[in-house]
Design brief:
Bact_exopeptidase_dim_dom (chains A, B), homodimer, hydrolase activity (chains A, B), nine-stranded mixed β-sheet, globular, six-stranded antiparallel β-sheet, alpha+beta, 394 residues
Chain lengths: 394, 394
């Protein structure tokens, strides 16, 4: 029995009805919101219809379980506060369609809070053992609501955690969330690895002063230190990075942040990502050395926040080869292997079992925005690649 | 009759009682606050005791008027939200002591809202005709209170505006608010000119994007544009500026200002000050040209806010010579002529009459802070310079 593209697209549009934003195909379906819980109840009924056994775990991860050992497929159905209709929802609905039609046991999952209302890929982080439940319960969202209180809203549905030993592997389809496939006119990306991430707050503390009466040579201007640091790391990274490496200063807070006052303090975020753990470590060295050097030269006190991070994750060779077989058949000459620059639930699930991922294009590279979209022909191509991959694994 | 240093210091300490912060000698006495109005009532009574005719004008500027043509002296008694005990208060109390003891007619003024709760040197700007009253009434503070509503709190005290034609000139004593005198171990600065100021908001608009999935070469990162702009103007200013020129990027707002998102927008303040209007204009050219150049190179949309500014003001030669005479007598070998990098009420009053200014040291260059202070010996030296200058002008 083959996948049914029409039924797949109808399910996808039906899911969009939960939290539809009224702007294009946008959705507002953050984890544990009314729309999110309603969407999960609907998904559970579709899973039941597909002959799967439904299980909500204690944190709201929703499983549709096939009997016996099975391949797990899926992603997440929660959205950003302003999100698109596809994002993780695509991977969940595609998994459901494959489970309905595959000739072998396929289970389906929609992880909870992948978008990080409370943490980072919270639901799969807990399931995989990366994040202890007791610790997760103390996390709070921007409004001060705790994870513990939020998941209580789904307590009536909750059963036990699912034993990961029943799954032979995990395959996640997702939109690319970047411009590569769309720019190149390709339909399918088979993920080679999920890049590792490092994130650190850095602050320079100089001397707050009057911007009229403090001569330039007596200033200890924290913004100038930040600007110099930025220029130097850009220069020093050049000999180390690949075209896949990225680094970002995305958050800057000056103090007191007034036009007539020499900034006494600059706190900023330094984030870098790469598929190679060694390169991530060498970048960290450059960052720390350069910050110390700039602090010395400009008379700053320097403070590093804790180094947060996730290790790079390589995709499983056998699962990846199956996806490549599917891509060759479904989109000949219009696919590539590529790294994932974004985090996904697969990063956590890789602690438990072999994982692989598949991308379809994001039009204009846009994601986490009401304007996120993908050509329906590409969505169906992705579905068919999953179908072929499952056949190839049989 | 000579000035009375003890009476002068006692008045200064008494004035500090209005809005004393409880931290060191700090005061909290912003314009139109209860403490500010109470301080002005107390000042009015001290003026009356000194034989001066008290007049509050419609915006709360307080005058103690000598009969007939007179020299006007003073400054302002409002403070920053967290201010020091001296700042403008010093000039008001010193003027009062000189008016009490001088052998010729000296009037005293305490301007209102020099610290700019509503505008910039608001009270003297209105009195001098630089800022129309109707326009001032629409200005609001950070809490949304209008100037019109705030000055209504003093309406019961208000008489007419004072005719500036009754004054032969204006002399203002103030703390330096910078480190020069303190660093050099000097007691007195005779101001040569008040530097001009230019202030402009600039914004770069690039493309907000996912910090994991957007390759470096496809980014249009507004923070990177800001950092490049900053490095280039620093470099290009070098051949143009003097040791007195200053420039500051004191306010930066990134959007959305999140560690995992490439900044799509950077709005920042660009402020520069110099005693020469031509140099200010050449700096503006460099700023505009460089911003355009960086925007072109980095794919930004560029927007300039309105150019705000005040022209440089030279001190009157005759009044300045009188202060120099005083400085030579009172602090031989321990005084200098110097520009004022800060704005003062004298900037506005210069539109109406000849003006001159005198500085005493700020310990550590600190001002607009509870920790602001000056050695009492230096305060008295400043008082005596004013006394000698008034004698020299007779």
């Amino acid at each position: 029995m083959a996948v049914n593209a029409e039924r797949f697209l109808k399910d996808l549009h039906d899911l969009r009805g939960f939290g539809a934003s009224g702007v294009g195909k946008g959705v507002v379906r953050p984890a544990y919101s009314e729309a999110d819980v309603a969407a999960r109840r609907w998904l559970a009924s579709r899973m039941e219809d597909a002959g799967l056994q439904v299980r909500f775990d204690p944190v709201g991860n929703l499983f549709g379980l096939a009997e016996g050992p099975s391949l797990l497929m899926g992603s997440h159905s929660d959205s950003q506060p302003e999100g698109g209709w596809l994002d993780g929802a695509l991977g969940v609905i595609a998994a459901l369609e494959v489970a309905r039609s595959a000739g072998r046991p396929v289970s389906v999952v929609s992880f909870q809070d992948e978008e990080g209302r409370f943490g980072v890929t919270t639901g799969s982080a807990i399931w995989s053992g990366h994040l202890p439940l007791a610790e997760a319960d103390t996390l709070t969202d921007h409004a001060g609501v705790s994870f513990g209180a939020a998941r209580a809203a789904m307590a009536g549905l909750a059963g036990d955690f699912v034993d990961p030993a029943r799954f032979t592997g995990f395959v996640e389809m997702h939109i690319e969330q970047g411009p590569t496939l769309d720019t190149e006119g390709e339909q399918i990306g088979v993920v080679s690895d999920i890049v590792g991430i490092r994130d650190m707050k850095i602050s320079f503390r100089g001397q707050q002063n009057h911007a009229g009466t403090t001569p330039m040579h007596l200033r200890r201007d924290a913004f100038q230190a930040l600007s110099l640091f930025n220029a130097r790391i850009n220069d020093r990274f050049r000999n180390l990075v690949t075209s896949r490496t990225v680094w970002t200063i995305g958050h800057v807070a000056l103090h007191p942040n007034a036009s007539s006052i020499v900034p006494g303090r600059a706190q900023f975020s330094m984030q870098w990502r790469d598929g190679d753990a060694g390169r991530l470590a060498r970048m960290e060295e450059i960052i720390r050395d350069t910050a110390h050097e700039v602090a010395r030269e400009t008379g700053m006190e320097l403070e590093f926040g804790p180094l947060l991070g996730l290790e790079p994750v390589a995709m499983d060779a056998r699962l990846k080869a199956a996806l490549e077989t599917g891509a060759r058949d479904v989109a000949p000459g219009k696919w590539r292997t590529m790294p994932s620059g974004a985090l996904h639930d697969a990063t956590n699930v890789a602690r438990l079992m072999p994982v692989a991922m598949l991308f379809v294009p994001s039009i204009g590279g846009i994601s986490h925005d009401f304007a996120e979209d993908t050509d329906e022909a590409d969505l169906v191509a992705g579905l068919r690649v999953l179908e072929r991959a499952v056949e190839a694994l049989a």
